[in-house]
Amino acid sequence: MKLPTLQKSLDLQKGLFLIRYDSAEDAAQPPKVSLSIDSRAAGSAEFLLPPDIDEPVLWSPGANVVIRLSAPTRIQVEVSARSLGGSLGARIQSASLSTDPLGLAAFDEPPIDLSGLRLLGHLAGRGDTSAGLGEWLGGPMAPTRIEGVGLDWARRPQNFGLRHSVRVGGPGEPRATEFVEAGGYSGTRGRALPLVGATFEVFGPAAQHYEITADAIFLGSPQMKVTGQRVVVSGPTGREPLVGLRLQIASTKVAVPPARSAPATARQEMPVAPAVAEAAPTGPVRSGSGRVRVFRSRAVKG
Fold first, then answer.
1. Is the overall model pTM greater than 0.85, yes or no?
2. What are the tens digits of pLDDT across the range 107-151?
3. What is the CA radius of gyration of the chain?
């Protein structure tokens, strides 16, 4: 007869984590804890196991395994009783491992040189033109229908990039283009088809410390401002022509915090009821750790 089991899951962000079998209800016959990863995420996760060990199985309290994740991943946790009447009560803890728990390394990185970045645009009746960061294409003083945009950045660094896509208006439904990086162009020229929306985003290892601010004006609508690592601009109905666009990119780094004593890892409790599947945490999770508790009373023999 198959031994009773209990399935749970643990959602972890990108990083290096220690997964620990913290305790069991039945210390004499603790349940076995097996860890696995969905096959679709296998390329982004790696268990670091002791020599001669092939599977990430935690056999008793005090056991540990390390997992390295290159992307957010859901870990499957299977708790198996040692006998038909055995306990399934166990507590599994995860803790983030970091060489920089206070995030001080970011302050040693040189700032990104944005001086050579220019926003290109094809404006109705004016043709191709360009603007530096903080300067308008079209804009409140000279609103002009923008039919296409591009980014010119000859000295783009290796660790930081900027890409964009647009929505082209005209007869029928607006058409969205694919994302292109600096050096690419999106939209049309000479076809009298206005842009009715645009998306810009930063990417790369250094992008986490920078944000875009996009100011946009759509025909017949007030000026709008959007800030973030990914910004989307469009008019009230999504069909108004874009007649003004300005981009700015700024660092989000703050002053170096004062030196202080701090634990190497943060902990977060995530209680789980045995009969309810665990939901993924809502909102962003930053350099945290989680804890999953799985408890079930000892089975009654018939």
1. no
2. 667 888 898 899 999 999 899 999 999 999 999 999 999 999 999
3. 27
